[in-house]
Specification:
Elements: H1 6-10, E1 25-30, E2 44-47, E3 57-59, E4 62-64, E5 71-76, E6 81-87, H2 91-106, H3 115-131, H4 133-144, H5 148-169, E7 177-178, E8 184-192, E9 195-199, H6 205-218, E10 222-227, H7 233-244, E11 252-256, H8 259-267, E12 274-278, H9 281-293, E13 299-302, E14 308-311, H10 317-329, E15 341-345, H11 349-362, H12 380-395, E16 399-402, E17 417-420, H13 427-430, E18 437-443, H14 446-454, E19 461-465, H15 469-478, E20 483-486, E21 505-506, E22 519-527
Parallel strand pairs: 9-10, 9-12, 10-11, 12-13, 14-15, 14-19, 15-18, 17-18, 19-20
Antiparallel strand pairs: 1-2, 3-4, 5-6, 7-8, 8-22, 13-21, 16-17
Helix pairs in contact: 2-8, 3-5, 3-7, 4-5, 4-7, 5-6, 10-11
């Protein structure tokens, strides 16, 4: 299937792609979650139709145990049970991986290979991932908890599209010839930066792999990537496919481990030339500090958000409710650019609240492998944090319209939750909740809502819902955010840059803009003797 926009795929009524065999088989273990309001219940959990074959570290083209021999469990968030034990990398393993990446960059064939040859390997890899779409989607759902439909029909195809996009860029990266004031020939060379360290989060393991690895390889770099300890499995799976596609040893190295050990070692390593990190703002500060204190390596950061979704008085309320619901609840609310502050004009506020509440109560929560399920379990650590924020909302006198508790007695499921009458001084209005909690505010006019929407330490994204082009233009230019979606949300095409203002990060990912993260610009000046022209 060709990659399509996440919003267009996921806003449709839920259905699974046709297949000659069923997604998986059900076993006799009673399902430990119950339906939320009118949501349809699923009676049994599905056995994931995929095996875990890769649990070791990938260093210099080989899957190896960690130097310490330690492992850690990765959990099924549906059941809180162990899926597999994964090699736990630490500083010594980061040293081994960086040494392999350095040798592959300084002595190996990858940066010396023609850009066209690099692009062919990337394209072959994309073809292999497409061939293994269903297995990868199942593994991502099992390890992360997101709906299988989302993984299979949106995220894996988007992964493939991103690698094909950057494969296309590989042989189109070049410098400039620059006129000089005197008799000199001046040119710029765009050179690979060297060994890139990359740290990815748990909410979109495959997509964040693609956003970082794709441009880095297209530019001719080598990589040491640290996976999130919560979701290490799909990165190891696709890394094996990359070597099947012909990637030379040492070009891509993957270390599974924890932030304070493996992550800190990578960020502070003196032989890493560039660092890219996606995660929380607080951890981003730590990563930036470690990079600065070591070798002052350049850093790109894609961090947290508290994005406003503004619904104007001329809105089609039914459509606005659905889009605002998608903007917040997509991926269990575990999205850095979630439309987590829903601003609604006072003239349509009451109608919106009633319909938003009803839509949340219809949201189907359950086993993410099951047909019709819209929301799976949250991350294990995030689960408790979200519940604390919900309690804070209740205590701060916001109106709890629906939800407000865990869902069932086992697994990390949270009821879709809607708060109305939210004020800017409340914790739920200021902090990134990162869960299925919609906070709704009332506003009077455009000038007021721009000021309130910008009154945050974040600036990752924003949504505008209006029929008036002048209103849309006023808002898009007034909002201090890296992306503004007008009458849509979460459109993530490969060529669209993504990144934030303020404490939402530094730099941009995706599109042409991400290439500059992985390139050095060198000016070359040579004298001209008796030139015919200057």
């Amino acid at each position: 299937m060709a990659a399509r926009r996440l919003s267009s795929l996921l806003s449709r009524s839920l259905h699974f792609p046709s297949a000659s065999a069923p997604l998986g088989r059900s076993h006799g273990v009673p399902r430990h979650i119950n339906r939320f309001c009118t949501a349809a219940a699923v009676e049994e959990l599905t056995t994931p139709p995929v095996q875990v074959n890769f649990t070791k570290l990938l260093i210099n083209g080989q899957f190896v145990d960690s130097a310490s021999g330690k492992t850690f469990p990765t959990l099924d968030p549906r059941t809180e049970e162990v899926i597999a034990n994964v090699a736990e990398g630490d500083a010594e393993d980061i040293n081994r991986a960086v040494a392999a990446a350095r040798k592959a960059f300084d002595e190996g064939p990858w940066p010396k290979m023609s850009a066209y040859e690099r692009s062919k390997i990337m394209l072959k890899f994309a073809d292999l991932v497409e061939k293994h779409n269903d297995e990868l989607a199942a593994l991502e759902t099992w390890d992360n908890g997101k709906p299988y439909l989302q993984a299979a029909q949106a995220e894996v195809p988007s992964f493939v599209r991103l690698f094909r996009y950057y494969a296309g860029w590989a042989d189109k990266i070049h410098g400039l010839t620059i006129p000089a004031d005197g008799p000199h020939h001046v040119q710029t060379l765009h050179e690979p930066i060297g060994v890139a360290g990359q740290i990815i989060p748990w909410n979109f393991p495959l997509l964040m792999f693609a956003w970082k690895v794709g441009p880095a390889l297209a530019c001719g770099n080598t990589i040491v990537l640290k996976t999130a300890e919560q979701t290490p499995l799909t990165a190891l799976y696709v890394a094996n496919l990359f070597h099947e596609a012909g990637l030379p040893p040492g070009v891509l190295n993957i270390v599974s481990g924890f932030g304070p050990t493996a992550g800190a070692a990578l960020a502070s390593h003196m032989d890493v030339d560039k660092l890219a990190f996606t995660g929380s703002t607080e951890t981003g500060k730590t990563v930036l500090g470690l990079a600065a204190k070591s070798n002052l390596k350049p850093v790109t950061l894609e961090l947290g958000g508290k994005s406003p979704f503004i619904i104007c008085e001329d809105a089609d309320i039914d459509h606005a409710v659905e889009l605002a619901h998608f903007a917040l609840f997509f991926n269990q609310g575990q999205c850095c650019c979630a439309g987590s502050r829903t601003y609604v004009h006072e003239r349509v506020y009451d109608e919106f609240i009633e319909k938003a509440k009803a839509r949340a109560m219809r949201r189907v929560v359950g086993d993410p492998f099951k047909k019709g399920v819209e929301q799976g379990p949250d991350d294990s650590e995030q689960f408790q944090k979200v519940l604390r924020y919900i309690r804070s909302g209740r205590d701060s006198s916001a109106t709890l319209e629906c939800g407000g508790d865990r869902f069932g007695s086992k697994g990390y499921f949270i009821q879709p939750t809607v708060f109305s009458n939210v004020k800017e001084d409340m914790l739920i209005a200021q902090d990134e909740i990162f869960g299925p909690v919609q906070c709704v505010f009332k506003f009077k006019d455009i000038g007021e809502v721009i000021k309130r929407a910008n009154n945050t330490r974040y600036g990752l994204a924003a949504g505008v819902f209006t029929k008036n082009i002048d209103t849309a233009n006023t808002l898009t230019r007034g909002l201090r955010a890296g992306t503004v979606w007008v009458n849509c949300y979460d459109v993530f095409d490969a060529g669209i840059p993504f990144g934030g203002y303020k404490m939402s990060g530094m730099g941009r990912e995706k599109g042409i803009y991400s290439l500059s993260n992985y390139l050095q610009v060198k000016a070359v000046v040579t004298p001209l003797k008796n030139p015919a022209w200057i």
